[in-house]
Design brief:
- About 10% of the residues lie in helices and about 35% in strands.
- The chain has 2 helices and 5 strands, in the order βααββββ.
- The chain is elongated and about 60 Å long.
């Protein structure tokens, strides 16, 4: 297998970027995923369930886009990239009004062989911290990078 992802960058972190969690964005996301639970739209319903206010659906951090692409993914051929596995860990729910500082960390690369050919799995984690610096969530995602077609 030809190694294409620069492993010397493992452990690198992106510059921090700030995300403001807005009510309209949470509502639109809940609508887009077909989530009818009122805790994602109505503050009274959320407080009745014990939350501080309207909360974001668990997969909402996928919408937090960094202002620039990290250096470990910049040289990759986008035509060969597929979304892989992802997971979320929460210290507390994301609440409308949160101002989160996020950073992406390049965790590692795994090589796999599939029937369709060789691939590299690029593993990243995005951490979000609140205004006090306390951790709120961690989003672990895997990017599948397929081998170049044989010439």
């Amino acid at each position: 297998m030809t190694v294409e992802i620069d492993r010397s960058l493992i452990g690198s972190r992106s510059a921090p970027y700030v995300v403001e969690v807005e009510k309209g964005a949470v509502r639109r996301f809940a609508d887009a995923i077909g989530e009818p639970n009122p805790v994602y739209r109505d503050a009274d319903a959320a407080r009745a369930q014990g939350y501080a206010g309207i909360i974001a659906p668990p997969t909402f951090p996928v919408s937090f886009l960094a202002p620039e692409e990290p250096p470990w993914t910049r040289p990759l051929d986008r035509r060969r990239v597929l979304a892989g596995e992802q997971g979320f860990h929460y210290v507390r729910p994301i609440v409308v009004g949160d101002v989160l500082t996020c950073r992406i960390t390049f965790v590692g690369v795994e090589e796999k062989q599939a029937r369709s050919g060789a691939m590299e799995l690029l593993i990243q984690e995005i951490d979000g911290r609140d205004a006090s610096g306390a951790p709120v969530y961690r989003h672990r995602r895997v990017m599948v990078y397929r081998a170049a077609p044989a010439s």
